[in-house]
Request: fold
Amino acid sequence: MFPTYQDVLKGLSGDISQLEQQRAALLQQIKRHLLIGILVLLAVIIGILIIDKLIFIGILGLVIYVIVVVVKYVKHYKIFRDAFKEEIVLGIAKQLLLQSELPYATNRYRYECYYYPSDRVSDQLIKESRLFNFTIDKIRGEDLFRGTLGLTDFKFSELTLIRTDTTTDAKGHTTRTDVTMFDGILFTADFHKSFSGVTILRSANIFNTGKLGRLFQPMRRTLSLFTREKKRKIELENEDFNRAFHVETTDDITARYILTSSMMERLLAFKRSHPEQIEVSFVHSSMYVAISSGRNYFEPKLSDSIAKTQGLIVYEDLKFLFGMIEEFDLNTRIWNKA
Amino acid sequence: MGVYILIGIIVVIILYFVLMYNNLIRVRNRVRESFAAIDVYLQNRFDALTKVAETVVSYAEHERGTLETIVSLRSKLSTTMSDGDKVDIYNQLEKTVSGLNVQVENYPELKANENYIHLQRTINDLEEKLSASRRTYNANVTQFNTMIETIPTNLFASMLGFQRKSLLEIEGAKKADVDMHSLLRR
Reply:
């Protein structure tokens, strides 16, 4: 379905070798400045041991040197990072789509991808997904992709959701602590059937499945009164699926319309092949997948080769994300949505 | 003191009885609701299949007899009919239309017809919704049957008029392998 990494590299329009040279030059610069820094520090220490009064001048000189070096490095690194994102990340994304061979492709299929390195999915989309039922005080994110693969529109970005906890001690001092509630990728795609309502699949744990889950059900039902929709827990015919996911829905029939035996098998296979925490929701004809990985995606590293290592990591990550569209068969449009 | 304890026990038993009864009613109503949904989707599918037959007839006049059979079946359906009679009519429709769909293979212009394609999508969608409503019905019936057959609810269920319900099962004809050879020869 997707081209190999070698084919993608061949299709890249930018010159990777130039970027590699930039990376190597930046790495050399850091090593050089580190060496100079150590020598300057040694000179300052020796100077201070000989003449005490030099201590202030020595430390000031060292601090100025460090600031100049850091500012210069940050500026050059930013240029390198922007070039990496434009040429490598966007380049690989476009080649993956353009060179893909989707089964049953027709002339209605489109292969488009747009990349916004500094943007993230909108607050509205985060809220619509219904996957984050906790207080969100801060949102950070980047690397927004949107486009169309085949007949399916998609959008995803990195996302970090933070809750700020405030505690007050006995003396009245307030402490604020940031707690990371989600750190990963939020992916959304246009589902291949039209439906209304909300169905949420959460990874099963002892508090939402089994005998203990039933014990906590009245509490969850009471809590759900305070959320937008009243959802009901349902169990489906596939026991493996029930063990893997806790399913809540606003409408039983709609949930089963979405979660056919085939879709349940696909979701199970997806969950088994990826060790990260995965939660899925189906909301008003869209599908949302939250992958909690804790990784920082699509960032360049100075220590690794771009063509051999870093490009391959970007390729694998994008292949996994774009691949979800075929993994869940979203391009098959034989029902009420064209 | 003993009197208060006795009153307390009686109150708890009454409360439990009320909760149990309300739960049974709730689940029984869900069963009825899901059966009603099946009926709605079957009716919608009937209407869609009638339109398919009309489209096919516009290309293949000799299939007019099939269309007349379908229209006649449709006219027999009424809201006062029992569920069993309705299911019989739906089954007869299915047999009538299945032969029609095979004949469509002989008319490539019909297969490419926008109206026909749209109708096929509608029917596919209704089939999925029908399947979902049948699965929901069976899940609700299983829950209901489990409630009235487990202790201590089973002690009171039959006294209160709650009877075991049957699951929807696939007909024997549909479970059997399809004889494509004889179907395509028609």
